[in-house]
Amino acid sequence: MTANLYLVLIPLLPLATFVLLGLFGRKYFKNSSGIIGTTSLFVSALLSLVSAYQYFFVDGKVNGVYQQVVILKHTWLQFSPNVSIDMGMILDPISMMMIVVVTFVSLMVHIYSLGYMKGEERFATYYSFLSLFTFSMLGLVLSSNIFQIYIFWELVGVSSFLLIGYYYDKPSAVAASKKAFIVTRFADLGFLVGILILSFEAGTLDFQTLIHRLTAPDSEFLHTAAAASFMGVSALTWGLVLVFIGGAGKSAMFPLHIWLPDAMEGPTPVSALIHAATMVVAGVFLVARLFPVYALSCPVALHLVMYVGILSALFAAVIACTQTDIKRVLAYSTMSQIGYMMFALGVSGYGGEDGLGYMASMFHLFTHAFFKALLFLGAGAVIHMIHSNEMKDMGGLRKKMPVTHLTFLLACLAIAGIPPFAGFFSKEEILTAAFHANKMVYGIALITAAITAFYMFRLYFTIFWNKEATADAHHADSSHHEGTYSMKIPLVLLAAGAVLAGFVPFGKLVTSDGAFLPTEMNPVFSIAPVLLAVTGILLAMSMYRKKNDSPEKISGAVKSVYQASYRKFYIDEIYLFITKKIIFNLVGRPAAWVDKNIVDGLMNFIATATAFVSELIKGIQSGKVQNYALYFFGGAIGFIVLFIYLWK
Amino acid sequence: MNEIFTLMKHELSLTLILFILLFLKLGKETWKAESTLGFISLLLLLNFLFGFVMNGTGSLFGDMFHTNATIAFEKNILNFGAFIISLQAFSWLKDHKHLPEFYMLMVSTLIGMFFMISSGNLLMFYLGLELSTIPLAALSNFDLLKRQSSEAAMKMILSSAFSSGILLFGISMMYGTTGTVSFSELPQHLDGSALQVFAFILLFTGFAFKMSVVPFHFWTADVYEGSPASVTSYLSVISKGAVIFVFVTVLYTVFKPMAEMWYHVLFLASVLTMVIGNLFAIRQNNLKRFLAFSSIAQVGFILIGISGSSQTGMASVIYFILIYVFSNLGAFGVVALVSALTGKENVNDYKGFYKTNPLLSWVLTISLFSLAGIPPTAGFFGKLFLLTAGAGKGNYLLITIAALNMIVSLYYYLRIVKAMFMDANEQPIEKLIIPFLPKIALFICVAGMIALGFVSDLYNYIYSLSFGM
To answer: Distance of alpha carbon A8 from its chain centroid, rounded?
Structure first.
């Protein structure tokens, strides 16, 4: 395996590009920065493919089992005699799969942006941020150490923050980037505490050692970790649940998903890269990375993963049906699909036949990256032409944008789970795994699949069929066509992925224990999901293909449900209600509806409550020295009384 | 005889500088302010470098004074901070009439702190503390024509006198119950009786006052705001750092027998300090006042590290202070420069700052990130180690509170970054020309904040110097 040292170039190339473009881009590479970024990423992607090939087909296996190897390991910070922070690169099936996905999608986005972002003032800055993100994401998936992963995790968050806020003169973009950063920071807090607990219990930060120490049945670390309890729950469970909260934040799982739809304020290619294919699956990846610990030592935490996953999948799918901004539809759809990946992990066991869910989850992550990136880039092309995100401004575009139309259709078929497109295979595996593990989850997943087909084709028909393009859409001059080749090529390549990715034999390549997992397609089993998906598509077709009033009729009939769903089940409002009305009134301050749009959510409660308390106590800092002396004295007396009389 | 010169070399070298400054002041020749400042900075730099050679271990004057590699390292950190502050004070002092006096006062406070760090018994500690406090009050008053500055000095001297009184009372109680004031003998006589707890808490308030631990912190904000910016940075970094160094050592060695008790004192004090410091920091508009409260909150985190009471605990505290020197001086450096050149100190004045002064904006941003503990700045590693040291005790409640406070603090640090980068302003601060010396200082700070987290040898070295209980 030592021959793989060139692996280190894969993350380092984007880093070098970031430094180069970040420092000199605006001055010297104003126009060539796109080419520079794309070229360097092309090399990186090529190296990823080569190393993945090398790993999967040449030297990754020992006795038919894929091995986990750490290369380039060195101690970075010796923290105390027993604990050190190491840096290294871990090679195993999931990291290999991820580097291929990340570099490939990132390359597509790089190429696509050549056309899409052309003429932007901060073109070079954009490419330097893209490179920074790619570097961080590659670093994240290759981390061999739980602390290393945390560093890259934060870096990914920062670059996402920078890219969402790319249009920094747009207040909504700035607000969205802040929301994303702060909400995920909250989740990261859980992650950090989780890391501290796990590493404290295992006495190491290294993944391999940590997993070994917390899973081996005769390990004393495992026994103490499972025995030590805090509020009736073992330290191990706490640690794993907290780590999962970190993952749920990044992966926009209910109820930490509130940042994702807003994050769509960023440039569309960025949404394709970060908020569809790569960063948002980091949470899934994290659970997969620690999967043996979840599955073998703490099934309780894994159950939580399952419930959160299935809930998010259904919840987001329902909301997606009613959104009118195409990027928001795709955002909720992403959340829903990630929910699939999560509950697939949740129903899985470790090793052998039980590991089907794990394999399915990774499989879906893989196929989803292709078709969801494709959907976003297609949506980007549409937005580029129409200059609007709203579905009502679109329609009848199939003739004007043939390439986009065709590739978008393929992606929709893939995500809807129609054979033989990629999504069908991975979804099938997930459903099979769910069927064997938990019938209720299976049922919900099936319904979600039907809804998915419905809202995707609602989107498809509204954009490309429906009314003929209105005058509004024509306002752009007729020379406005589909976009440059740099925008079409990625669409075609991703479409190829969306069609073919399903034929990758994942059971042979990526499994929970590295061993071969035989999978077979059972045609009988496939009947139900495919039938439901087709029903969803037909329903969407009848409602949205021709402009007619049936959507209004239906929404009239189920008005309250539609309304509730349209308002995202009032989640934002519930946050607002609880935080502003109930808690605030109880605190004793008249409910101040300060700027409803800016102040929503839990964050704001903390902010307002903090400001409130801070307002209350500001009188203490009076500026009078005699008062200070009094407080000083009072403090001293307080401590004395407390520790002499009460504490003993 | 030789021993005195090696063991007390930090103090002696500063005393030498003090005399050179005195002659400079009294001498007939009047130098140009620029060259005087350059000369003094050079002296302080030499003094800092001299701190690394010929260090000894041992004690003097019947154990009144002792030193070792750890203490020498701590003094070097303080020397370094003083050097940076001297560079940063350039823009402010170059038009000041009493330029050499500023440095004379500063050097004498530093000497006091060094004696305090090296002290081997309670009286020596008290002496050092006072030696450093009185010139500090004079320093606060150094903007001679500003009323605020005099007010700050007045408040400082009154509050210090009050605190000293209580501290002395504590020392006498300690002597009364144990019959000794020597650090090496005290532990054998401590049995945790109520009177000793009483005496300890009085002593603790003395430390807490200097470290600005809530509720003994009230003087901080007013004094920080009123004093000249360079003095404020001196107060928040050097003066505070020195007391923390002593505090750790004293807790881990002298008060070891009462460890269980003081652990709880620290727990309570650190929660109070973090929470109150943050709550006040949120609403400040004056940047100096804001940094004052943020530095109060930082002390809360330091107390967590101390409460770890292990070798890691002490190492993380020293390491954090080293990083804190860079971060806080970076932030104060920018604020002091802007304040000296334009007189503006409010957050609102900084709106649109990035448009006119991109370099300074980045320096301030990096410093604030480091103070907030955002990776990959050094401040992140500092905070992380503190929390990990604290977590070693298994008190997750404390860690959770600390982590929540980190998030709150993130808000107000980012608020300033937002003002600089995103808010529009019709009359932003004009483009400032940064003089050479402050530029070097800022450069060193930024380099430190970016690089320090990645130099593991440094941490390892500090770890090897530290000791646990």
So the answer is: 25
Three-state secondary structure call for residue A315: helix
- Residue A145, Ramachandran bin (φ over 0: left; ψ between -120 and 50: alpha; else beta): beta
B285 contact residues in A (CB cutoff 8 A): none
Highest mean pLDDT among A63-72, A591-600, B400-409: B400-409
Could you give the CA distance from residue B140 to residue A123 in angstroms, rounded to a whole number? 49
- Please tell me the distance from the alpha carbon of residue B277 to that of residue B291, in angstroms, as a whole number: 10
CA distance A632 to chain B (A): 5
Question: What is the distance between the alpha carbons of residues B151 and B177, in angstroms, rounded to a whole number?
Answer: 39
Residues of chain A found within 8 Å of residue B205, distances taken between Cβ atoms: 632, 635-636, 639
Judged by average pLDDT, the poorest of A33-42, A471-480, B311-320 is A471-480
8 Å CB contact of B400 and A631: no
Is B75 in a helix, a strand, or coil?
helix
Taking an 8 Å cut-off on Cβ atoms, the answer to whether A610 and B222 are in contact is no
Is the separation of the CB atoms in B151 and B228 below 8 Å? no
Helix (H), strand (E) at residue B158: helix B147-178
Tell me: the pLDDT tens digits for B412-453?
888 888 888 877 777 778 888 888 888 888 999 999 888 887
CB contact under 8 A, A639 and B400: no
What would the mean pLDDT of B75-93 be, rounded to a whole number? 89
Q: Would you call B163 and A632 a contact, using CB atoms and an 8 Å cutoff?
A: yes
Q: Which residues contact A240 (CB under 8 A, 6 or more apart)?
A: A194, A198, A290, A293, A294, A298, A301
Domain range annotation of chain B? 2-466
Distance between CA A547 and CA A129 in Å, rounded?
42
Position B326, amino acid: F
SS (H, E, C) B411-462: HHHHHHHHHHHCCCCCCCCCCCCCCHHHHHHHHHHHHHHHHHHHCHHHHHHH
The residue ranges of DSSP E strands in A63-116, in sequence order, are 65-66, 69-78, 84-91
Please give the pLDDT value at position A559. Answer: 64
- Amino acid letter, residue A194: G
How far apart are alpha carbons A354 and B385 in whole angstroms? 40
Half-sphere exposure of A199 (CA within 13 A, CB side): 26
Structure tokens at A78: 């010796």
Find chain B residues with C-beta within 8 A of A76's C-beta. 454, 456
Chain centroid, CA A457 distance in Å: 23
Distance from CA of A482 to the nearest CA of B (A): 35
- How far apart (Å, rounded) are the C-alpha atoms in residues A567 and A552? 16
Whether the ω angle into residue A261 lies within 30 degrees of 0, i.e. cis, is no
**CA angle, corner B317, sides to B312 and B319, nearest 5?**
90
Nearest to B194 among A629, A631, A644 (CB): A644
How close, in Å, is residue B389 to chain A by CA atoms? 10
Which single residue is written with the structure tokens 């939580």? A304
> Distance between CA atoms of B201 and A641, rounded to whole angstroms?
10
- Alpha-carbon distance of A5 to A2, in angstroms, equals 6
- The chain A residue lying nearest B268, using CA atoms, is A639
Strand partners, A65: A62
**Partner residue facing A610 (CB), from B219, B282, B414:** B282
Cβ within 8 Å, pair B456-A186: no
